[in-house]
C-alpha cells in the first residue's frame, strides 16, 4: 500500500488535494484542516491510507501519522466506513477521539456527522481496549466559548487562496447557519458561495 505521498500541490478543492508525483497527479481525499495547510505550487508530504473497493481505489491524505492511524483504527469498528472515519478525524483531533472512547463520552462522538447514539456506543465498546491513552501531542484546546468550526472554515478558505480578511467576512456571513452541530463542509461550501458572489 501507499504509506505517504510527497510532491507539489497541483490543486485543492473542498474535499481533496491533487499532488503531482513523478508527473502523475494523485487525488487525495482530505479533511478541511489538512487542505487548509496546503498551498498550490508548494511541496507537501501527506501520510496516506488507500481504500480498495470492488469499484474504486481511493487515497486518503492526512497531515500526520497520528491522524492516519486513528482513521484506520476506527474503521475496524462495525458500521464505520472511510467516510465516517474521515468525518471523525475532521471534527475531532486524534487525542479527542482517544479521550472520548476511553472515557465513554458518547456526546463527543455524536458530534461527528454520521455517528448516532448507538453507533457511538458500539465504537466505544469495540475500540476501548485498543485505542490507547491520549498521547498529549495535540494543540491546546480552543478557549472556552470559541467555535472550532470558524477556524476550520477560515483555514479552508485561506488554503483555497482567499485572503484572511475575505475569509473572516465569509465566516461571519455563514455563522447564522452553523446551528448547534455545525457541518464544517457545508459551511465551507456556503462561505465559498458568498465569496464567489462578491
Keywords, separated by commas or semicolons:
Helicase, Ruva Protein, domain 3; DNA polymerase, domain 1; RuvA_2-like; alpha+beta; hydrolase activity; 9 helices
H/E element string?
EEEHEEHHHHHHHH
Query: How far apart, in Å, are the first and last alpha carbons?
Result: 44 Å
As a percent range, the share of strand residues is 15-25%
What is the typical, i.e. mean, pLDDT? 87
User: Approximately how much helix is present in the residues?
Assistant: 40-55%
Low-confidence stretches: 138-145
The class by helix and strand makeup works out as alpha+beta
The main pleated sheet reads as:
5 strands, mixed, barrel
Q: Strand order, biggest sheet?
A: 1-2-3-5-4
Beta strand count:
5
Number of helices: 9
- Please tell me the CATH architecture of the largest domain by its name: Orthogonal Bundle
Provide the CATH top-level class of the largest domain: Mainly Alpha
The CATH topology of the largest domain is given as DNA polymerase, domain 1
Rg from C-alpha positions? Answer: 17 Å
Task: Characterise the protein shown here.
With 198 residues, this protein is of the alpha+beta class. The chain folds into three domains: 4-62, OB fold (Dihydrolipoamide Acetyltransferase, E2P), CATH 2.40.50.140; 66-127, DNA polymerase, domain 1 (Orthogonal Bundle); 148-197, Helicase, Ruva Protein, domain 3 (Orthogonal Bundle), CATH 1.10.8. The chain has nine helices and five strands. The protein has a five-stranded mixed β-barrel. It is found in: Cytoplasm. Belongs to the RuvA family. Keywords: Cytoplasm, DNA damage, DNA recombination, DNA repair, DNA-binding, Hydrolase.
Amino acid at each position: 500500500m501507499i504509506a505517504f505521498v510527497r510532491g507539489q500541490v497541483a490543486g485543492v478543492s473542498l474535499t481533496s488535494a491533487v499532488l503531482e508525483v513523478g508527473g502523475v497527479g494523485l487525488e487525495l481525499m482530505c479533511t478541511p484542516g489538512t487542505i487548509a495547510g496546503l498551498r498550490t505550487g508548494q511541496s507537501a508530504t501527506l501520510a496516506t491510507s488507500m481504500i480498495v473497493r470492488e469499484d474504486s481505489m481511493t487515497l486518503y491524505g492526512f497531515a500526520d501519522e497520528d491522524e492516519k492511524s486513528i482513521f484506520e483504527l476506527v474503521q475496524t469498528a462495525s458500521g464505520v466506513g472511510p467516510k465516517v472515519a474521515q468525518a471523525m478525524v475532521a471534527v475531532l483531533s486524534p487525542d479527542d477521539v482517544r479521550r472520548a472512547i476511553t472515557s465513554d463520552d458518547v456526546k463527543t462522538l455524536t458530534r461527528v456527522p454520521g455517528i448516532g447514539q448507538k453507533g457511538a456506543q458500539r465504537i466505544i465498546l469495540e475500540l476501548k481496549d485498543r485505542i490507547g491513552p491520549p498521547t498529549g501531542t495535540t494543540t491546546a484546546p480552543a478557549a472556552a466559548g470559541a467555535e472550532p468550526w470558524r477556524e476550520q472554515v477560515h483555514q479552508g478558505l485561506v488554503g483555497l487562496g482567499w485572503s484572511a480578511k475575505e475569509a473572516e467576512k465569509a465566516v461571519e456571513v455563514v455563522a447564522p447557519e452553523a446551528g448547534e452541530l455545525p457541518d464544517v463542509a457545508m459551511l465551507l461550501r456556503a462561505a465559498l458561495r458568498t465569496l464567489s458572489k462578491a
